[in-house]
Amino acid sequence: MIDFQGIINNIHNNLIKEEVKGVVASYIPELYKQSTNSFGIYLQCINGETYAAGDAYTPFSIQSISKVLALSKAIAFEDNRIWERVDVEPSGNPFNHLSLLELENGIPRNPLINSGALVIADMLVTHLKNPKQDFLNYVRTIANDQTINYNTDVAASEKRTGYGNFAAANLLKSFNNLNNNVEDVLDFYFHQCAIDMSCAQLAKAFYLFANGGKCVNNVQHIPVSQAKRINAIMLTCGFYDEAGEFAFRVGLPGKSGVGGGIVALLPNNFIISTWAPGLNAKGNSLLGMQALEQFTTETKISIF
Ligand code: GLN
Q1: What are the tens digits of pLDDT across the range 6-53?
Q2: What is the pairing mode between strands 195-197 and 149-150?
Q3: Which of 35, 109, 118, 287 would bridge with 276, disulfide CB 3.0–4.6 Å?
Q4: E strand or H helix at 130, and its extent?
């Protein structure tokens, strides 16, 4: 029997003492209010056991982690048609890279970089009757938590400064790969990124990816084969141009966000989430990556 609580307590207590904690994202001004001293870890096992350390119940801005949740909702509507508008190859580029310029056919490299996530957002704006409310309801349902909400200050902050995302959306539109208004798609995208969730809520929401598409309440939201695909995309594309490094050091599919969150999982076993707002040079949580590397090293459990 592995002492999960002891392991995550040790990881938390040792890493919180590190002097180098990374740099909080400042390009979205509202995120810069976060402290590098926040640090939480939450482990949700498929059998229902849970373990928490540090700030595991404090909500924070999930940012790019939302791209996986949006992808799962779009897949529920579009199934395999989704891949006609977005590819599944790692980009090797930062999340905000305008890689469409290289492709010249308007098909983003994958759904977890910004240009790909904007195409997914466009699909949801098309399919959902009240896009922002319906998407929030979906996240609340899969996490089994009605308290989850948008942080409208964060959404407004990114709307004021998100020039790169405006450029990407306009570029997609020029390639006819956005069906809705640029403004509507960006408004939805800035809100999906501005959902606040804690490590505990994120681990619950990602349960369905570790459980063949069935959420914590045992409802099938996506087919087993699509859960497999989403995990594959997380492994190859979940950490921007550091996806190889994350697979190498941690060995789990996962997704990070510039709010400092990371969620990773082992199918049929567990979901583990971390939050530490200080980022490394590639925009991934510095302590979070170290914590997850130590977790898979000490427990000797990873997909490899
Ligand atoms: N909303 C952020 C952006 O589009 C998300 C980036 C991230 O978390 N990597 O820039």
Answers
A1: 999 999 999 999 999 999 999 999 999 999 999 999 999 999 999 999
A2: antiparallel
A3: 287
A4: none
Between the CA of 167 and the centroid of ligand 1 the distance, in Å, is 14
3-state secondary structure of 46: coil
Q: Are 262 and 292 in contact (CB under 8 A)?
A: yes
Domain CATH number, residue 48 = 3.40.710.10
Please tell me the distance between residue 15's alpha carbon and the centre of ligand 1 in angstroms.
25
What is the spatial distance between Cα 191 and Cα 241, in angstroms, rounded to a whole number?
A: 24
Is residue 174 part of the annotated active site? The answer reads no
73-86 per-position pLDDT tens digit: 999 999 999 999 99
258 is catalytic: yes
Q: CA-CA distance, 72 to 205, in Å (whole number)? A: 11
Nearest-10 Cα torsion for 267, 202, 227, 88:
-110
141 and 119 Cβ atoms separated by less than 8 Å: no
* Number of domains into which the chain is organized: 1
In a domain, 11, yes or no: yes
Instruction: For residue 217, tell me if it sits in a domain.
Output: yes
Q: Do the Cβ atoms of 269 and 3 come closer than 8 Å?
A: no
Contacts of 116 (CB under 8 A, 6+ apart): 67, 86, 87, 108, 109, 110
Report the separation in Å between the CA atom of 63 and the middle of ligand 1, taken as the mean of its atom positions.
5
Tell me whether residue 304 is in a domain.
Answer: no
Residue 55: inside a domain? yes
Would you state the structure tokens that stand for residue 147, as one six-digit string? 């308290």
Q: Please tell me the predicted confidence (pLDDT) of residue 105.
A: 84
Of the residues 38, 61, 64, 157, only one is catalytic, namely 64
CA angle 121, 96, 235 (to 5 degrees): 75
What does DSSP assign to residue 219? -
Half-sphere exposure of 95 (CA within 13 A, CB side): 24
- Domain span at 234: 4-299
One-letter identity of residue 140: R
ipTM metric:
0.96
